[in-house]
Write a structure and sequence with these properties.
alpha/beta, binds 1,4-dihydronicotinamide adenine dinucleotide, six-stranded parallel sheet, about 375 residues, Dihydrodipicolinate Reductase, domain 2, globular, binds alpha-L-sorbopyranose, Rossmann fold, about 25% strand, nine-stranded mixed sheet
Length: about 375
């Protein structure tokens, strides 16, 4: 019997909302039938471009549409909780952008509401879906590195380097009490736990706000926007961090370190990790995602190029093209959504099969971890999870 196509509505049609539409078009088992954005002109523009029949200004109206099976939340962070709550209470499956919520109280409430429903929930920790990240996980968990001595890395960006750089992400009432930690540290921490198969057990953090006052452009301020000389600005106080340095202890006592910064000149979107094992080491970064470095002590180092014929079968599932055909950031969304939609289509939630993708449980855990990091920085002490 031919399976029903799944019908989707996207809330928030900015940077990542548009990327969701593009990724969903490429998985082929669903139709995006509606978009909603408080900026109705933008929603209409996106709907025209992608030939999407329904456009709403109010997200409540999109959620009310009985034809929609799955709701994607791609709004600023402060709306994740109210939108997800309404969507689940209305019986929709939900794919929510990270961070899941502004704080643990909200995140736990969502987890409970979802737990009492038949709805599938996913959080967009899409960076796990780079094929060589999947390969690193297979190698680490398959014991190819032997005992793991340490896990370390960085997530660096430069789009907040100047005090004239501004977006809603620097306003804690919209973005939440942590910024660099929740915005980009969340991806690194989720990936580290995914690769190691262990949660973070304790953290000790040092954080800094390099620009305690930023110049907010009187016109719009967009993430990744070029700084401009002829803008008019107002001074605003900033209470979230540009930088965080963490000491980490993972569950089975593996030590880790992480530097997070949104003010590192020249680093556009640089997520890097290195795992040191007793037999070998692995290193990978998101600006060069189709190569993984394998370090050895008593032989030549190796460079593994993303190629379905060279990686573990489990990692090959997340590759759509042969070796030499580069895949990147947009493909991570596609691979994540493919897993979520196939799971919904197969009704695996009704069969009680565990979700293979990041769920609200993972989203809630990372929100709690971000809060623990802030608590550690404020108390100048280790905080146990
Ligand atoms: P953005 O500012 O480009 O887009 C947000 C959109 O939401 C805007 O078009 C805005 O008008 C709309 N919006 C605001 N209030 C609304 C409301 N009440 N109802 C409907 N729409 C409303 O922001 P961006 O960069 O797309 O980020 C959105 C979310 O996605 C954030 O939570 C961010 O953390 C996450 N994100 C995740 C990425 C990933 O790799 N997983 C990448 C970029 C963003
Ligand atoms: C901005 O810092 C941002 O777009 C994050 O919100 C994303 O999650 C990350 O993928 C890239 O940078």
């Amino acid at each position: 019997m031919k399976k029903q196509r799944i019908k989707t509505g996207i809330i928030g049609t900015g940077f990542i909302g548009a990327a969701h539409i593009e990724a969903l078009r490429r998985i082929g088992i669903c139709d995006v039938i509606a978009v909603a954005d408080i900026n109705l002109d933008l929603a209409k523009k996106i709907a025209r471009r992608w030939d999407i029949p329904l456009t709403y200004e109010r997200y409540e109206d999109l959620i009310k549409n009985p034809d929609i099976d799955v709701v994607h939340i791609a709004t600023p962070n402060n709306l994740h909780y109210p939108v997800a709550e309404l969507a689940i209470r209305s019986g929709k499956h939900v794919v929510c952008e990270k961070p899941l919520a502004l704080n643990t109280k909200e995140a736990k409430a969502l987890l409970e509401i979802a737990g009492n429903s038949n709805c599938v929930t996913a959080v967009s920790f899409n960076l796990r879906y780079y094929p060589l990240v999947q390969q690193a996980r297979k190698m680490v968990q398959g014991n190819s590195l032997g005992r793991i001595f340490s896990y370390h890395g960085r997530y660096l960006q430069d789009w907040l380097l100047f005090d004239t750089d501004y977006s809603w992400r620097v306003d804690s009432s919209i973005s939440g009490p942590t910024r660099a930690i929740s915005d980009i540290g969340s991806h690194w921490l989720d990936m580290a736990e995914y690769i190691l198969g262990q949660r973070v057990a304790a953290v000790c953090a040092d954080i800094r706000t390099f620009h305690p006052v930023r110049k907010k452009p009187k016109a719009s301020g967009k993430t990744f926007q070029k700084a401009s000389e002829d803008q008019e600005y107002e001074n605003v106080e900033i209470d979230t961090e540009d930088y965080a340095a963490l000491l980490i202890r993972f569950e089975n006592d593996v030590p880790g370190t992480l530097t997070i910064s949104q003010a590192s000149a020249g680093r556009k979107n640089y997520l890097e990790f290195e795992v040191d094992g007793e037999k070998k080491a692995l290193s990978w970064n998101s600006e060069n995602p189709n190569e993984m470095w394998i370090g050895k002590r008593d032989s030549f180092n190796q460079l593994l190029i993303k190629d379905p014929s060279l990686v573990d079968e489990g990692a090959a599932q997340f590759i759509s093209f042969p070796g030499g055909h580069t895949e990147g950031f947009p493909d991570t969304q596609k691979q994540l959504f493919k897993q979520v939609y196939e799971y919904i289509q197969e009704e695996n939630h009704i069969k009680g099969i565990a979700a293979p993708f990041p769920t609200f449980k993972d989203g809630c855990h990372i929100v709690a971890l971000s809060e623990a990091i802030l608590q550690s920085a404020r108390s100048h002490a280790w905080v146990e999870l």
